[in-house]
Predict the 3D structure of the following.
Amino acid sequence: MEEVKINLQDKDNMENLYPVIDSHIHLLDYTEFQLEIILENASKANVKHIMNNCCVEQDFIKIQSILKKYKDNFILNSYGLHPWWLNQRSPNWLQNLREYLEKDPNSQVGEIGLDQLKYEQTSKEEQIDILEKQLELGIELDRVISVHCVRAQPEMQKVFKKYFKDPKQKPVNIIMHSYSGNKEMTKGYLKLHANIYFSLSQGIIRKPEFLQVIPLDNILVESDGPHQLCEKEVQESGLFSEKDFLVNQNHLLPKLGKINEPKFCHALIEFLAKLHNKSRQEITLIVYNNSLKAFRLIK
Ligand SMILES: [Zn+2]
């Protein structure tokens, strides 16, 4: 695999930030007005690609109008059913999902997964069943798969062991979104016959102990925008100040004062650089190359 050449300029202003890929975002959760701003900010901040995730079937059609506006694979899209809203699926959901994935060969599967906090709404067994069907489709169509897992790591590993054990099978690229599993879990994932990538969101800055056993070559960064903003931690990177945050006026996020966006991935890079006692330039190269491999942007 070729190493990516990057024009590295060690300046801290936004126009000269190093390239980064936002591994997980929800573009449909922004207002149209916000979306224009955050995508412009992203390109100014040298965010090369952003990986959008769908949550419910209705999103599949909605995202098309956004995708049309941006060319050159700047936005890569994932189709899938998120464990929080499984009860909104239609009887034809699986066929519907297949059609969208087949229509766009560059698309991925996501976000799919398990969430213990929603077992009352959709039982564990049902969540597992739907997860397995989506995994099978992703494997069949040879796609990258983005996974949500909250308080269900042992169940997730059990499912993964079923699908990712055959060394003769082509390894699937799996993105564990907003990952914060413990050491034992991380080791378990790394043993699977799959290319597992751990995508970090800003919350990880508060619990660096989770990062001890994750090899740097398996790390990605994400905003999960517009959600999961850790304003204090982003500011502590020294790269952003109060004026860099957009105030939320979105009815979908009534509790948030400010919104997350792709450009804040640089704060995570800075945090990783400090944690590993490396330069931001070194970490950028590692994470950027990881992202290109994870999302198959280089062959
Ligand atoms: Zn998500």
